[in-house]
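[scheduler] slot 2 assigned
[scheduler] job type: sequence-to-structure, two independent chains
[scheduler] chain ordering preserved from manifest
[runner] begin chain α
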Amino acid sequence: MASLVCLLLLPAATSSASGRLVPYDLLYADGVRAYFARDWGRAAELLQRALYSYAGLRAARRACRDACLREAAFLGEPPAAGPWEAALFDRVLQRADCLQHCLGSRLGVAPSAHRASLVIQRDFERREPYNYLQVAFFQLKKLDQAVSAAHTFFVANPQHLQMREDIEKYRRMSGVKSDNFRDLEAAPHWEAYEAGMQHYNADEYLQAVDRLEESLREALSALEECRALCEGPLEDEEKEEEDLQPGLYEAIAGTHYIQVLKCRQQCVLEIATKPGWISATEDFIPSHLDLLQFAYDQVGNQALAAECAASYLLFYPTDEPVLEKMKQYRAELGEDTAVTARENIRHYVQRSLMEKKLIYYATEHLGGTFNDPVRLLIQSLLTSVLTSPTGSLPFEGITVTMDSQQMNGTQRVVFDRVLTESECKDLLRLTKAARGTGDGYRARRSPHTPHERFEGLTVLKAMQLAQNGDVDWRDAKLLLQASEKSRKIIESYFTPGKKLYFSFTHLVFSSPGEPFSYHPVHADNCLLDPEGKECWKEPPAYVYRDYSGILYLNDDFQGGSLFFTEMDTVTVTANVHPKCGRLVAFSSGKENPHGVRAVSQGRRCAVALWYTHSAEHAEQERVKAEELMEQRAAEENQPDGEEYQRADHNSRSSPEPLVPSGGARLTSQRHKSVSERTQHPKELRARDEF
């Protein structure tokens, strides 16, 4: 960023009359217009001013946050004679007033003028302005600046084929120097980290200590900047207008504040992800301390080595090798020498723990989900918050085998003993009788993988088969009862007091076809984009799904286990092995990417379940199946009201089609592969059209 500021210190970036910082999205839109008008000089000027304004806005927010933390601190006890609420909100109002005045004076305009659309924000995060700039500079015959702009964009977008070709062309051009290929947005902590690792791997420990200490300082500084930027406006794009607006405390606790806390937790991943990389560097902050303790030990500074080791143990308190090193350091330094962790690291850990506790409490008691970006051993301190479910289970004998903490995620749970062995056998008999007559994919290859055959029954098809005498009525009825029992369990655990409707119910049975493969990782209500670390809630995904479940009927097969991953679809966080009566349930969003390993031998049978809070998307095949069941009961004069409670369906809609969201193609422009894009950056519309 320092290189960028030096390059872009243009007087025109602010209004000369008032020192006003022009909003970067306005400058960007004007720069792109000039670009497509082939006014290269003006395009280059405006795009550079936009980048300068963007950097200036981030710096102002960081500086004002730091200043107002001191000026309007939340310290001290409320006055004994006054109510705590007035004392609390008095300080909140002071902080808000401080931020408004600070930003207004630094920006020269109301802070609201700098609220750009999400489209523009993403463009700057992905360094799109440099894509335009490199062309403009090339046309202006400013080759050195064109190369720097191209390289800066390519570092963050290494899969961009057109830019890859441009970079190769630049390398072959006469007059282009190797120094021109520099990253104008290079993060200081990454430059220091890579230099430190080079010295470390070359056993140059004195130099390694200097650069790794610099990297740690810069990383913590970048973390604070990221946290400051989290304190922006509430983002609630998915909220429906007809929803009831929350009250004062619900709005504060359940929406904006928790959004800010979640954003702050994600900052750890942001600073640990090198530009252009999909995944973050594992244990980025703790690894600095581990490397430093070894390097300090090698140069003979056992005091600092012990300090770094003590700091590392705040993250991993049971790490045996480091605990052994601590014993060694204490012996060398003497038992009277106090060895303590660094205060800034202690503050970092304690603050993170406090925020995690608040987030987990909110998700468990107020709803919502949280995909914890950092799962360290310090999270054992959160057990009291994480292990208790939100509601009591409505049936006796059911056990919670794994909860969210044990599954390294959020809104995940495994129940056992939902069905008896006898009930599993009855439903398995239903699958055998229905084989070849089901409605899965008509015994064709599974759409998830070409190496597995897939068949299945909907509840309506099961009832129709029973009506025709192809299967036993009692088995078809058991399918309805077992799925309803699962719905009540999931509803009581995750959303007590809030109705869950069936979205789709499917008795599935799959068997091996060819060599071992697996169902690709996907999310159930959005289109997973691992490279962009996004999950787009748009068709053809079933965006109305809220919770998912799988009720297993057998385990006499090989393969077929369920697994959860990170957003990168590669890092496995939990595995669930099938067995009779086991129910795994989870929220359907991006916080729970999952896949299924293919069956390599035998036959896997399970009831796949999806649920929604939206009555208009309730499963209508189920309504018809229940009507057939009631007709059958009336014919036999055996009312089923006490034995099976019919789900409440307040709305009718067409049944859900069988198209797995994980295999859906991305058709919108932002999902296209780089090879599908044109040579030039995409055109932007004016700000008022965003």
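[runner] end chain α
[runner] begin chain β
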Amino acid sequence: MEETSREAVATAVQRVAGMLQRSDQLDKVEQYRRREARKKASVEARLKAAIQSQLDGVRTGLTQLHSALLDVKDIQGSLADVSKDWRQSINTIENLKDVKDAVVQHSQLASAVENLKNIFSVPEIVADTQQLIEQGELLQAHRKLMELECSRDDLMYEQYRMDSKNTSDMNLISIYFEDVQGLSDELAKQLWMVLQRSMVTVRRDPTMLVSVVRIIEREVKIDRRMVDRKKQSGFIPPGRPKRWKDKMFEVLEGTVSTRIEGTQSVTREADKMWLVRLLEITRKYVLDDLIVVKNLMVQCFPQHYDTFNRFFGLYHNAVSSRVKELAAEDLEANEIVSMLTWVLNTYKSVEMMGHPDLASECDINALEALLPQDVVDDLLSKYVKTFTSNITGWLRKALETDKKDWQKETEPEADQDGYYQTTLPAIVFQMFEQNLQVAAQIDGDFKEQVLKLCLKQMNTFLIRYREEAVTYKEEHLRDRQLPQCYVQYMIAIINNCQTFKESINSLKRKYSQSSEPTDSDAAIERTLSEVAKEGCQFLLDEVFLDLEHHLYELMTRKWLTGSHAVDTICVTVEDYFNDFNKIKKPFNQEMTSEALRRVVVEYIKAVMQKRITFKNADERREGADRMIKEADQFKFLFRKLAAVSAHETLFTVSTSITGGEDTDRLCGAIAAIAEVFKLTDPTLLFLEVTTLVSKYPDIREEHIQALLAVRGDASREMRQMIIGTLSENKVTYSAVTQPIFKDIAVPTITNTMTSMTSMATAKLLK
């Protein structure tokens, strides 16, 4: 027992020394300890299973004993008869005693004669066997070992048959053959060493591996024969059964585990790509080893060993244990991706276990998962959490960088079509693209999950983008000289909305299998539309801030006597729209439509504010002609701008503008009002006003009153008659046509005085 303990300690020391050959392996001491603990737990589990099996056997035995009891009773009756016959023949048996003694003596002498040569040559055979073991002649060494064991076992068996209680003779034989057990142990060590180096041995000297397997097969047969003899006689030689076959598989399992665990060559501190390198080395080792097993090692083992599938299972279990240990470590986000990509995709791919050279020998679909699903879910959850935090920081940093560009004194870059843009969409979607490519490597469902997360983060980002655009506009209004390229960068912000939309659709087409819209889609679409529309509104606000003074001149005495306000308005609008042509569709068309509408509304507001009252027919005619001329100027300008925005020529006859409004209809409102002013016969005024109301049914009573007040020659009774008649025959207007007069307020006397004061103040300040 003490010798066995010493050998166990020596083996353990040798194994630990093999594990800790390098200083960097000290970091894995805890892992080795956990692995040994798992092995211990496995042994305990097997013991429990064995005990349970024995209990089941006892239960079965009791049942059989009950059956045997009935048989015994029958046998007792038969034995009674036999005993009676035996007593009658006892004298005959006593006469045969001498013959029996002679037979036993003859058997012992025959065994002694047969083993006499071996008995006297035991020391010599022991020495030869030891030398053969040292020379690596394992097959011959085992043959001599079998001769020694056979001689010892036969002598001990005969001694047991002659006198099983004579322990002194048994001990004498054991002492004489004590070196045999040492030879057996030494030979076993050599066998295990060959098996530990089996991957190298099978390439260099496969006959050595074949010899080891033949020796183990011999021992299996001897174990089986000795166990059968024990059932018959109750005797079994010392050291039997050896169970070398079981030990062989344990050694092979330990060899595979050690090979997988020894693949880590660097640590995270030395190389950030340590895990990628580790997994690649593991992949290469496993694939190379299994190909060697299939092509070479299978030929060295008996067919009933099912060698390839056994090694296939050993490597799978070893890899599984290793990746579980790695998954338990504090992995970073990129390491989680590398791990899961390798476990879920690479492992069963043609690059590893599904390699064409192995496909004919195994079914990879029957393999259990390397990692339990709960571990995979935990790793995915950890990655998503880290990714969410990272993407939020990346988006915030990208927006801050873009905001700094907004303050530059140089214009933003233009794309290949000449539209202004910033680098923000490209940066954002490059980040999304990279992470989605990584997610696609792991799993299709996980890719969808990451895409939804990206869209959700995109919606939050766009809300912040909108807020920053508003802040940018407000800062500009404090000092309109800064930033110098405010208009150009606001155009770039609007264009970015279209780029964002196109990029999102591209990502969804590329990475989403579902065509169903998500909750984020509508929110993103709505936010992008709001950012673009507000950007367009900010640009138009910028235009009308420059036009404000000229708009104040409309419908005044100065305007009537020859102001160039409308000329200036047209030139200013056209100048701004030279920059607005850098806005992408459909926003450029919407800008043109909204600019026309605002110009017309401001012009009509000037009429409704009653800044002038015509004194006579000449003034009314002159003012009406001027209004018609200016309406034509607006019509020509915005047809031209609409043609440019739609990539048409200046001679295009089309007058449609995106948004459903018609240039003729908007500018026609000014001309229709002019016709009211131009009329010379007051008795026909009601008809003219009725025509105006039929064309623009959203016009209200206060608008009519303001027009008649500006005309200056309508009596109170006429105004009341016109208003009363129109009220009785009120015209309804269709919602399809966007109203013009609806949002135009007619100021009261107080508002008119305030407006006049503001105009006077503005003139004084100028």
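[runner] end chain β
[qc] chain β: The chain has four domains: 31-247, 263-371, 377-534, 564-647+657-762.
[scheduler] slot 2 released
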